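Quick one:
INPUT:
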């Protein structure tokens, strides 16, 4: 494994608590800490800080060996000096005026360090998924006083306490009430002190003697085990004694050193002794997170089928982590831990091991839970829980925005600055220097006479290159995502164009379309690509000064341009903005010119001479398929029958029709055929042949489609055949889900509508965490609610060893499981397992390194994968109980409504501003939000209510 995955990490952090920014240092035993690790909170003394305590306490080395996290909170100025709010009482601030036992003078504006500690524990759970039942506290001097206060204030969140060179200081009435309360909670406590401490009096003066009362340990011992006046003594070494007051249960121990020091003792191993003491204790307050319980980490739509998958690994890298679920499971509301549903998980496939994952699996169906809120799945006997998830109609809105903003970060030639780029992912404009995109030259002739301005566009993947042929699937998916469900593509995605009245998805697409227009030559052809000539790349992109070259025009690029520009023209011409309509006209002209050139030059091959980067070339079928797609979109755009004639004459050569086989590797070619079938004026026989072939393949004739869903072939509910798990399997998953959704979009098999919906949603949930690895396959998505998302990726900007290695921008889709992965032949290290030698769906590892390990085979993002996922997610968002108008029209016309859904009696209807909906006859809805207008004709009537 690469060193970064093993090496410890030191860092600093901050959070908001009590209206203040509070800071802390931390030490992770590994760069990617495992879930459920214990935490030691270590509080420094007066006048110090977390970094100084970290430098001498010695906990980091113990944490590395014993696998726990150490956090060193920083105090702020209290009562005129840097210290924690360690005076134990029941009011915020450092003492109260008139309390003669308290600080002098009192500081009522001091922070609430108890609240800070509680907030810090919650933060660590969200950030690192710590084991909240195994949080421990230690502290030196003033930090030890703080430990004592926390033992009284947070016994429900901290499992054991170890103050050093400290005592308990607090308001007498508060202390008396605490130690006499009937509901006192016993806590294990180890106190370490020097017998001659000149700063804080030791508990026993002089030592040794047998006192009748030891402050403050006797108070705890009386209540922990009823023995506060006697203890047993054992020698740790000649200079250290261990005094045990409570020998069982919640122990109370005093470690006395026989020196005269207030400092951190060197007479014995203090951090190891503290860890050995505290590690044996844990709370039962919190259900323990366990990723054997797999859920969509973002959540579920209210009306969707909701199935948690519970796994017991049998083979693969986690085979030792077997798990047997309890008989009864619960759905609990996260806000108050209340039980909203009880049920039993069912065994998948009679308990056989699922070959693709190596797991035995159970399903827990909680589809009946539909009320909006935050929940988790709970194993009530094992006290295990899933990640928290949301249920509501807007559950994927934030996910969609973050995933779409990936294209903003992929923009070439644009500075990424606040407020659009979130720190630390900011950068200047890239590739605008000498012999770069604004002075780009032909790779086979770099004379200045060949220079062209080819700025803009998107980085294709983890490199900075730009390929026209690779825009085909990317743009078809994005543009159809908009056409399928325009309501979700709002104008507030926090990109520079947000707020301009145009859906941000189309604004983002325009960045790529503008580049494609620059790639088009006066004769209509499109240049093939813009790239460095080797594999050079520098982070950040603005620092990369390598020369960039373009490749000559090709049929591959030009046919791609004809199809993409035509479909984009349809979308832009549909907008109300006059400027965007005119832009649509520009796209239309460009598409027509590209189509004409490709028709005249159907086999102009691209030569990759001069480049080491990928050629991005297609075979004869793909070139024809793109020309057929262009004809479909151009016919829909112009109504010109020349395009229909070409389409009708050639569609039967596309694999869907040739083979009678719909499959995810050619999803966007199939989408073009389906698109033709909904264009007014399409030849009836051709339309019927396309729809029949497609629906038959999805419904019955291909066992990998609906039959696989109905027979529950995949324990993780998102079936692909073994051979389809290749580089970019997550893109293939997204396309397969889109194929199921297409059956409903085109209304091809109404009897199985719910099955297609559920089958498609299964692929959404797989990508969001319902898979054998439990990863949400999007990067850094804690911002949107994913507790266990991909932590790193292969990308030149955010690469191995950069400041962004473990902190990439949110929302990039990883390539996914890849059983075909092999490192380069130059690699001479041990087998990299995972991903090698694993069941198919476990052939994944989250790591980021380049040659010769080649982690890009699993963890490189790509714009075409991102687009396929965005279309999948936006299509899934059709399945709410809200139907929104997208234009003026007749109520019973499917084109009037988002997702083509004519409202029913159970739907909430939203009629958008400037939309006029006509009603003839009787129509029904659960409710109507009227921002536009309804008109009635011919006895029209709208019935509301269930």
């Amino acid at each position: 494994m690469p060193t970064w995955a093993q090496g410890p990490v030191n860092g600093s952090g901050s959070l908001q608590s009590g209206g203040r920014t509070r800071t802390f240092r931390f030490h992770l035993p590994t760069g990617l800490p495992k879930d459920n690790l214990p935490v030691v909170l270590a509080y420094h003394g007066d006048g110090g800080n977390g970094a100084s305590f970290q430098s001498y306490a010695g906990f980091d080395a113990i944490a590395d060996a014993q696998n726990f996290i150490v956090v060193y909170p920083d105090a702020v100025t209290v009562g005129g000096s840097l210290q924690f709010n360690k005076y134990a009482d029941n009011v915020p601030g450092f003492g109260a005026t008139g309390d003669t036992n308290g600080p002098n003078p009192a500081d009522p504006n001091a922070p609430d360090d108890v609240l800070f500690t509680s907030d810090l524990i919650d933060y660590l759970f969200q950030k690192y998924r710590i084991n909240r039942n195994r949080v421990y506290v230690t502290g030196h001097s003033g930090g030890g006083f703080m430990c004592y206060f926390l033992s009284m204030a947070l016994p429900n969140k901290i499992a054991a306490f170890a103050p050093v060179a400290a005592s308990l200081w607090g308001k007498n009435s508060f202390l008396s009430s605490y130690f006499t309360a009937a509901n006192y909670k016993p806590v294990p406590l180890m106190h370490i002190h020097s017998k001659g401490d000149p700063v804080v009096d030791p508990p026993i003066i002089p030592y040794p003697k047998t006192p009748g009362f030891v402050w403050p340990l006797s108070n705890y011992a009386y209540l922990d085990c009823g023995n506060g006046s006697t203890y047993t003594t054992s020698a740790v070494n000649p200079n250290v004694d261990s005094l045990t007051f409570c020998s069982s249960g919640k122990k109370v121990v005093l470690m006395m050193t026989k020196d005269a020091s207030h400092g951190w003792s060197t007479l014995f191993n203090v951090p190891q002794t503290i860890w050995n003491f505290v590690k044996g204790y844990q709370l039962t307050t919190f259900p323990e997170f366990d990723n054997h319980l797999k859920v969509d980490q973002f959540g579920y739509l209210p009306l969707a089928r909701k199935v948690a998958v519970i796994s017991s690994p049998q083979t693969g890298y986690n085979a030792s982590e077997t798990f047997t679920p309890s008989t009864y499971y619960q759905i609990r509301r996260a806000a108050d831990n209340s039980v909203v549903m009880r049920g039993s998980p069912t065994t998948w496939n009679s308990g056989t091991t699922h070959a693709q994952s190596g797991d035995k699996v159970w399903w827990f169906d909680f589809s009946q839970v539909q009320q909006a809120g935050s929940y988790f799945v709970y194993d009530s006997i094992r006290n295990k829980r899933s990640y928290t998830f949301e249920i509501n109609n807007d559950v994927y809105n934030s996910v969609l925005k973050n995933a779409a903003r990936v294209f903003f970060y992929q923009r070439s030639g644009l500075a990424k600055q606040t407020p659009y780029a979130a720190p630390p992912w900011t950068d200047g404009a890239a590739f605008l220097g000498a012999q770069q995109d604004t002075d780009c030259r032909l790779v086979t002739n770099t004379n200045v006479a060949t220079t062209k301005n080819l700025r803009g566009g998107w980085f294709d993947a983890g490199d900075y290159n730009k390929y026209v042929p690779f825009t085909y699937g990317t743009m078809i998916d994005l543009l159809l995502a908009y056409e399928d469900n325009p309501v979700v593509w709002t104008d507030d995605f926090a990109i520079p164009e947000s707020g301009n009245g145009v859906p941000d998805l189309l604004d983002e697409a325009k960045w790529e379309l503008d580049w494609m227009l620059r790639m088009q030559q006066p004769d209509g052809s499109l240049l093939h690509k813009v790239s460095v000539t080797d594999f050079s790349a520098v982070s950040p992109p603005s620092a990369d000064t390598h020369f960039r070259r373009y490749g000559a025009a090709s049929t591959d690029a030009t046919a791609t341009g004809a199809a993409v520009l035509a479909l984009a023209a349809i979308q832009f011409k549909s907008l109300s903005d006059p400027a965007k309509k005119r832009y649509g006209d520009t796209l239309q002209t460009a598409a027509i010119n590209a189509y004409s050139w490709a028709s005249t030059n159907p086999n102009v091959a691209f030569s990759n001479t001069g480049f080491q980067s990928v050629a991005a070339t297609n075979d004869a079928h793909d070139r024809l398929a793109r020309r057929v797609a262009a004809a479909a979109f151009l016919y829909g755009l112009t109504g010109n029958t020349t395009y229909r004639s070409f389409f009708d004459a050639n569609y039967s050569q596309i694999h869907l029709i040739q083979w009678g086989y719909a499959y995810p590797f050619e999803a966007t070619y199939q989408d073009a055929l389906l698109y033709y079938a909904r264009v007014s004026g399409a030849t009836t026989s051709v339309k019927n042949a396309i729809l029949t072939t497609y629906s038959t393949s999805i419904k019955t004739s291909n066992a990998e489609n609906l039959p696989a869903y109905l027979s529950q072939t995949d324990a993780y509910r998102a079936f692909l055949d073994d051979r389809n798990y290749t580089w970019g399997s997550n893109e293939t998953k997204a396309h397969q889900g889109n194929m199921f959704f297409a059956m409903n979009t085109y209304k091809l098999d109404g009897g199985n509508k719910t099955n297609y919906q559920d089958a498609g949603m299964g692929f959404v949930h797989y990508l969001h965490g319902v898979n054998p690895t439990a990863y949400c396959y999007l990067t850094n998505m804690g911002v949107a609610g994913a507790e266990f998302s991909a932590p790193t990726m292969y990308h030149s900007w955010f690469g191995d060893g950069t400041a962004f290695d473990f902190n990439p921008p949110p929302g990039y889709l990883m390539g996914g499981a890849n059983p075909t992965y092999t490192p380069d032949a130059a690699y001479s290290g041990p087998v990299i397992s995972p991903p090698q030698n694993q069941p198919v769906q476990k052939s994944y590892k989250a790591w980021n390194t380049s040659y010769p390990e080649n982690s890009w085979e699993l963890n490189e993002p790509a714009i075409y994968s991102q687009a396929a996922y965005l279309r999948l997610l936006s299509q899934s968002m059709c399945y709410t109980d809200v139907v929104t108008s997208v234009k003026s029209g007749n109520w019973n016309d499917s084109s009037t409504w988002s997702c083509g859904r004519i409202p029913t009696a159970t739907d909430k209807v939203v009629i958008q501003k400037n939309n006029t909906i006509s009603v003839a006859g009787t129509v029904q809805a659960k409710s109507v939000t009227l921002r536009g207008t309804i008109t009635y004709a011919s006895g029209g009537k709208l019935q509301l209510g269930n």
